[in-house]
Specification:
Length: 224
């Protein structure tokens, strides 16, 4: 594949992301993810939150509307916020910015809550470790971190998850993926000093792009 494959894919994504129909689908998908993962229930209802890998911004938008006491930094290394999200959240306390989760530009203990949804499996294992260390650093004592991830438990699951990922994100064969099984995430999160209070399993996030169900987990963690 040529070196222009990445830019071409980004151009396709940006075009599709600008469609009104796409915005509607993303909003339905967000509602499904929030219902099944229980993300909003476990994050603080007030305070400053960080959406790490915010993508188009639909999850942060929904969570701020759900609880007006929330403000949110929406950080992503590549993706721009949807123009529809920007318009709808113009009056909300949201702060979009570019940045990498492996080197967060915030002081220690800045945030009351942090979440990362379907992001870390796109990062090399050492990058995942660095991102988790940074999340713990910027989270206030007693703060909540929710990790939502694809969690295959066997080789067949892994094939299904990879296929779904590539179809959903228009990814080529060269795109790296680094999934972990639920018990591996449990050990990793605990190793970074998080207390895993809840593990919520769910499948079939709308819209389904594979016949077999894709397994997901939400790990609700607290920083002691």
């Amino acid at each position: 594949m040529s070196s222009e494959a990445g830019p071409r894919r980004r151009d396709i994504q940006q075009t599709i992301n600008g469609w009104k129909l796409s915005d509607t689908i993303f909003r339905w998908r967000t509602a499904d993810v929030l219902r099944k993962s229980q993300l909003g229930r476990h994050l603080p209802a007030r305070g400053l939150l960080l959406d790490l890998g915010s993508g188009l911004g639909h999850i942060a938008e929904s969570l701020m509307r759900e609880a007006p006491g929330r403000s949110c930094v929406m950080m992503d290394p590549v993706t721009e916020l949807s123009p529809y999200v920007l318009r709808r959240t113009a009056g909300l306390p949201r702060y979009p910015m570019k940045g990498s989760g492996t080197d967060l530009p915030f002081p220690d203990a800045t945030f009351d809550g942090v979440w990362s949804a379907f992001v870390l499996h796109h990062v090399l294992a050492r990058g995942q470790e660095r991102a988790l260390a940074e999340i713990r650093r910027v989270l206030r004592p007693g703060g909540v971190f929710v990790l939502i991830e694809d969690t295959p438990t066997n080789d067949r699951d892994a094939e299904t998850v990879l296929l779904a990922d590539r179809r959903t994100n228009f990814e080529g064969e060269e795109e790296p993926h680094h999934y972990r099984r639920p018990e591996q995430w449990q050990r990793t999160l605990s190793g970074h000093g998080f207390v895993v209070e809840h593990e919520i399993a769910f499948v079939r996030v709308f819209p389904a792009v594979t016949i077999r169900a894709v397994p997901h987990r939400a790990f609700v963690c607290r920083r002691p």
